[in-house]
Every structure is written in structure tokens, then in C-alpha cells.
Amino acid sequence: AVNNRLLSDYFRNAFAAGGDQGSSLLVEDPAGELDGESHKILVWHIATGLCQIKLLLEDKAGAGDLYALPATPPHYAAVACLSNYCAYLVTQKLVPDNGLVAEEVFDDVREEAYTALRGCSTVREIRDRLVPAAAAAAHGGAAASTTTIVGMGAQLSEKLLLAYGCRDDHLWERLARFWAGFLLHLSASTRAAKHEIHLQGRGELTTHLWVLLSHAGFLGKTSHGQQLLDPVDLDDA
Predict the structure, then answer these.
(1) Do 44 and 153 touch, CB atoms closer than 8 A?
(2) Can you give the pTM of this predicted structure?
(3) Which member of 56, 155, 175, 195 lies 3.0 to 4.6 Å from 79 by CB, making a disulfide possible if both were Cys?
């Protein structure tokens, strides 16, 4: 039980003021009340991406993409890699959610993003399209943007930037800590049958983490007894 609580406290571990679990939180997690891990992953992935865009736009050298900035905070690369990897796990349905749920959530959010960003051709246009309503909500105004996953991600990015600023090393350090803890939670909480599929091939990082966590007694929200696959996952078996 203690081990499982350590895994599930990944948000507080990252964002408690002063790094002390008993301290107040510097930001609130808008995804905390959502059902399903796929929703949470995508909210945080969108928020992280918008923080990356903000850093890009403030870069005086005007780098062309999010991964070729001439100078980045120390934890930037880890944040980008972990965020992208967790989003990738949703597309592979290698998350604690039912495979059909993960697939539907991803498709719905992709449609949300397509609708919200139609006509945008640059990262500046993407940010300008999403941020105004999110910024108003983050400052205590209307919260209409929070009704969609894309809107929740945009609002979360504004709260993070309001608390830290995009060039603050603490933002990227805390995001790295969050994503690392979240990935461990996802790995331990995904049912054994899904991981066993990937043990038969080259394996996924999350599956190797699951093996290590299981041997250490970290079982997340699932257990080795949950061996049945969902029908949508059988295609990968």
C-alpha cells in the first residue's frame, strides 16, 4: 500500500511548494478529476507542448522547431522525450485504460485539435489560437476552455507559465519530475497481459519498467492476476 501511494503521488511529488509533500501545491492539476489515464496524458502533453512553444517564441535566435533550440533549460530534453513517449503509449493502447477507450479518446482529441487549429500553419498561430481563452481562465476569468481536453491543456500551460515562466529552470525540473513519476505510475498500473505482449518482441520502455517495479513490489492499480486482454488489444497479441 505504501509503495502504491508513492506511485500515485507523482503530481504532488513534482509540484508541492519547496519539494515538500506536505506543502501547498503551486499549481492545481485540472486533469486530476478526469476518468481514465489517456485523458490525463493528453492534457499534460498539450500543456507541455504549449510551454515548449512559448520558450521557442521567446528565443531570440528564432529557432525553427521545438527540438533545435540553441539553448534550453537543463531538463528540457527529458521533459520533451517523456511527454512524447507517454502520448505515444496512448496511440499503442499500452496504458491502464481499456484499449477501446484509449483509442476513442485519442481520436476525439485529434478531432478537437483539428477543429481548434484549422488554418494554423505556424507554432505562433497555434499558441495565439489556444491561449487567449485559456489565459482568461487561468487568471480567474471564464472557464469555457476547460470543457475540452485541448482547452484544459491550454489552460494548464498558462497556469504553469504563470507560476514559473518558460525560462525558469524550476518549471522544466518539475515537469521532468512529473513526467518521470507519471510514466512509472502508468507502467505499474497497466495490466500484465498488455505488457506480456511486448515482452515477446523488442519490448517497450514502459514494459521493462513494469518488470522492475513488479519485482520491487510496486503494483500500481492493477495486479498480476489481471491477465485478460480487451478485444481491441487482441490484434497486438
Answers:
(1) yes
(2) 0.84
(3) 175
Across-strand partners of 25?
Answer: 16
> What digits encode the pLDDT tens for the residues 119-159?
998 888 999 999 887 766 656 655 444 679 999 999 999 99
Count of H-run helices and E-run strands, the chain:
10, 0
Helices 149-163 and 123-138 cross at an angle (nearest 10°) of: 80
Task: Say whether 16 sits in a helix, a strand or coil.
Answer: strand
Tens-digit pLDDT profile for residues 19-52: 555 567 778 888 888 889 999 999 999 999 999 9
Query: From CA 84, how far away is CA 236, in angstroms rounded?
Result: 21
Measured distance CA(170)–CA(175) in Å, rounded: 8
DSSP states of 125-145: HHHHHHHHHHHHHHTTS--GG
The stretches of the chain forming alpha helices (DSSP H) are 2-8, 10-15, 37-58, 76-91, 99-116, 123-138, 149-163, 169-189, 192-199, 205-215
Amino acid symbol at 186: L
Q: SS3 of 20, please?
A: coil
Cell of 225: 492476476
